[in-house]
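The following block was generated as part of the benchmark described in Methods. Ligand: IPE.
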Amino acid sequence: MSASPVTTEGASLVCARAPAPKHVAIIMDGNGRWAKARALPRSAGHREGVEAVRRAVETARDMNLECLTLYSFSTENWRRPAGEVRDLMGLLKQFIVDDLPRLKKEGVCVRIIGDRKNLTADIRALVGRAESETRENTKFTLQIAFNYGGRDEIVRAARAAGEAVRKGDLRPEDIDEEVFAEFLDTGAAPEPDLVIRTSGEKRTSNFLIWQAAYAEYVFVDTLWPDFNAEVFSAAIEEYCGRERRFGGVGGPSR
Ligand code: IPE
Ligand code: IPE
Ligand code: MG
């Protein structure tokens, strides 16, 4: 039997091949199918999905990750029936109201990425409050991608960079990958090392398409409401067995 690619040293992960992941991003998928399998409305799947969010945050902190990004509403999810969109908006609001005091106390910095323009004023205010009340927290960052689309984010960043050029604050020739990335919603945040997608679907669905250019992907069949520490650890273990080459040749000569 071969040695496990992942061990722990104190509370920290030690990976055999890749450096331990610092930032994990998750495409939380399968709430609808979880509900359908139980003859429940889709809203029940989304509600149960919030419990899985709480478990994932706890596990990520236990594993000493620095950042967890969760995809919770895409720019394409507006295509869903109005009632479902309303449910998803309501769950974000409820999550912030219920969990912000605890997250704040536990040293979690909350950031919301995505376009806020089309969100209602009450959600914009809550999201702003979650960010401002946890800004000083440095232990762990929870990024929630809400009304988020990778293409939309890149277009908004391009506009902002163009605006900076127009104002004379930036020269076009000074725009490189690093400078451009600062205009993205994620700003100077570290890129994800690992992207996990649940429910067996194998696509990015417009998630972090700039930032995850060199992330490792792990696809698991588990439906999001069933996601737990065991599934999370197994995904990390798979990541730890990978060799990240970033276009180089890998191995000891890197
Ligand atoms: C993920 O579950 C939650 C969101 C996309 C908001 P889905 O609602 O996509 O569940 P399935 O894919 O229909 O099972
Ligand atoms: C991706 O899931 C978006 C989120 C998890 C928020 P979807 O269920 O919306 O993606 P598609 O439609 O299957 O690609
Ligand atoms: Mg889905």
